[in-house]
């Protein structure tokens, strides 16, 4: 019990830290930049002009190649790690205003965000160190190893289903405007509120659709024993591009991802932290 109380007390102190709040708000700006670049890569993939990965890893590498890019990556990494600490405290002692299933859902979502923010922050550091490899290739190699083991294909299929479920949940979260519960909407004027609502709906729907497609492709990879399909978001974007009207659908999705990037800038100001 004492360990639990100590962990809770530490999480509470972190949650109430002014410095953590400032770093977290800066982190939202970096997170927005990453998604703007992600959207740009998706747009290039839509019309066949990109050899870079169509995911956040590719966005970070693209940023690292620019003048002062590595310095910006360090700043983004610090912000992302601050966001991870914030969400970890939310998972432990946060979401007090919510009850029942809603609170459980928000805590689980906070755990997922911790994983995402830590992974992106670590990826940014590896890019700075010139050690970032192609994450899609790594995912394919891991899938091949898992499929070679007993029960590995079932594990891969389960991971794909979880990812698809997260994506579908993200679409619902956006279309139902549930993200507004975490914003200081009372501090927005009507025009800003309307803009933020539209950006959030488009952004969450686009990101969720990409995650859902990626998850379904992983399931297909497991069923057909085809690890090449298990390449995450990059494979999802390229698969969508190759369908009828795919380039235009992917271009629309790229705009949605970019919209989420702009939405993150507003979160920097209006998110409840």
UniProtKB/TrEMBL annotation:
The keyword Phosphoprotein does not apply. It comes from the Bacteria. Keywords: Membrane, Transmembrane, Transmembrane helix. It holds the Pfam family DUF1206. The keyword Transmembrane helix applies. The chain crosses the membrane at residues 22-47, 67-86, 107-125, 154-175, 204-225, 245-266. InterPro entries: DUF1206. Residues 26-93, 111-176, 202-271 form the DUF1206 domain. This is DUF1206 domain-containing protein. The lineage of its organism: Bacteria, Bacillati, Actinomycetota, Actinomycetes, Micromonosporales.
């Amino acid at each position: 019990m004492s360990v639990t109380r100590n962990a809770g007390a530490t999480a509470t102190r972190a949650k109430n830290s002014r410095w953590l709040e400032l770093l977290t708000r800066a982190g939202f700006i970096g997170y927005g930049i990453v998604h703007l670049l992600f959207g740009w890569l998706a747009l290039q993939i839509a019309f066949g002009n990109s050899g870079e990965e169509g995911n956040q890893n590719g966005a970070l590498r693209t940023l690292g190649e620019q003048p002062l890019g590595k310095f910006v990556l360090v700043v983004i990494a610090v912000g992302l790690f601050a966001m991870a600490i914030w969400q970890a405290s939310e998972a432990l002692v946060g979401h007090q205003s919510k009850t029942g299933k809603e609170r459980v859902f928000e805590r689980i979502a906070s755990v997922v965000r911790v994983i995402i923010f830590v992974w992106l922050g670590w990826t940014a550091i590896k890019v700075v160190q010139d050690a970032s490899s192609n994450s899609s290739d790594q995912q394919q190699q891991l899938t091949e190893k898992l499929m070679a083991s007993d029960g590995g294909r079932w594990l891969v299929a389960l991971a794909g289903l979880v990812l698809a479920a997260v994506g579908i949940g993200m679409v619902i979260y956006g279309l139902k405007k549930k993200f507004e519960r975490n914003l200081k909407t009372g501090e927005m004027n009507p025009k800003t509120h309307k803009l933020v609502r539209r950006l959030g709906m488009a952004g969450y729907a686009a990101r969720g659709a990409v995650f859902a497609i990626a998850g379904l492709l992983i399931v297909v990879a497991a069923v057909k024993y085809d690890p090449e399909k298990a390449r995450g978001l990059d494979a999802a974007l390229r698969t969508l591009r190759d369908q009828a009207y795919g380039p235009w659908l992917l271009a629309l999705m790229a705009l949605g991802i970019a919209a989420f990037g702009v939405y993150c800038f507003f979160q920097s100001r209006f998110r409840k932290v």
